């Protein structure tokens, strides 16, 4: 396989498990609206934007004809609850092996970017104390088209000044893997091989990434 020059990381589910906080906040919103929202329903929210996540929730609750003002109000309310969890986060919540792997790549001259759908990405990186490990940050504040659209990955590569074909993406969501492939990048899937079957390599987490395998893809 061709060597790579840049590594582009998703945030939620790859560097930190914020999905559990998203779920708690969405679950609370559903309860307030009078219906049950399960972890299975929550799977469909992973990797997609806040407003698309709200659409998933409203579909489950059969509430499809709300005004856009009401939808904004509900998404904002959920986000306020979600941020209460984020403010309590500490660097201990970085997923096992993620920080060491970022440092490992940096030491070898690999450029590093974040490509996340989250508008809260800057707060999360700050709470984890890892902002400085990224050469570029592209998040929900700077893209208009959500994954599986390739926009977030292409912007990340552009900001790094590296061609898409020289990038490796680390993703946990099917929509993210699809977006990265559409961007012309190679993908390491983090999670279930059956779900992430479009990825070149799938591992359970960073401790399972054999540096030698990846190193053979680096210049
Ligand atoms: P926010 P990622 C995504 O993060 C989450 O996986 C997804 O569940 C969430 O709806 C989205 O961020 C937007 O998050 O409400 O904070 O803007 O996986 O792309 O890092
Ligand atoms: Mg993710």
From TrEMBL:
GO BP, sorted A to Z: carbohydrate metabolic process
Positions with a binding annotation for substrate: 10-12, 26, 53, 78, 116-120, 147
Cofactor note: Binds 2 magnesium ions per subunit.
GO molecular function, one term: magnesium ion binding
Keywords of this entry: Magnesium, Metal-binding
InterPro entries recorded: B-phosphoglucomutase_hydrolase, Beta-PGM, HAD-like_sf, HAD-SF_hydro_IA, HAD_sf, PGP-like_dom2
Catalytic center residues: 10, 12
Cofactors demanded by this protein: Mg(2+)
SUPFAM superfamilies: HAD-like (SSF56784)
Site (Important for catalytic activity and assists the phosphoryl transfer reaction to Asp8 by balancing charge and orienting the reacting groups): 116, 147
Domain of life (superkingdom): Bacteria
Residues at which Mg(2+) binds: 10, 12, 171-172
Family classification: Belongs to the HAD-like hydrolase superfamily. CbbY/CbbZ/Gph/YieH family.
Stated name of the protein: Beta-phosphoglucomutase
Natural source organism: Ruminiclostridium cellulolyticum (strain ATCC 35319 / DSM 5812 / JCM 6584 / H10)
């Amino acid at each position: 396989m061709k060597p790579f020059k840049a590594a582009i990381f998703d945030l939620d589910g790859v560097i930190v498990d914020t999905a559990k906080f998203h779920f708690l906040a969405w679950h609370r919103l559903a309860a307030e609206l009078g219906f049950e929202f399960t972890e299975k329903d929550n799977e469909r929210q992973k990797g997609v934007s806040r407003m698309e996540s709200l659409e998933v929730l409203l579909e489950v609750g059969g509430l499809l004809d709300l005004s856009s003002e009401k939808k904004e109000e509900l998404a904002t309310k959920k986000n306020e609850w979600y941020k209460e969890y984020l403010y309590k986060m500490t660097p201990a919540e970085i997923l096992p092996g993620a920080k060491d792997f970022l440092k490992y790549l940096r030491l070898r001259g690999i450029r590093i970017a974040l490509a996340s759908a989250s508008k809260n990405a800057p707060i999360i990186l700050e709470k984890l104390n890892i902002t400085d490990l990224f050469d570029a940050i592209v998040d929900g504040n700077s893209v208009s088209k959500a994954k599986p659209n390739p926009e977030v990955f292409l912007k990340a590569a552009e900001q790094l000044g590296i061609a898409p074909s020289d990038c490796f993406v680390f993703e946990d969501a099917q929509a993210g893997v699809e977006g990265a492939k559409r961007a012309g990048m190679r993908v390491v899937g983090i999670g279930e091989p059956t779900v992430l079957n479009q990825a070149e390599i799938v591992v359970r987490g960073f401790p399972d990434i054999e540096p030698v395998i990846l190193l053979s893809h680096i210049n």
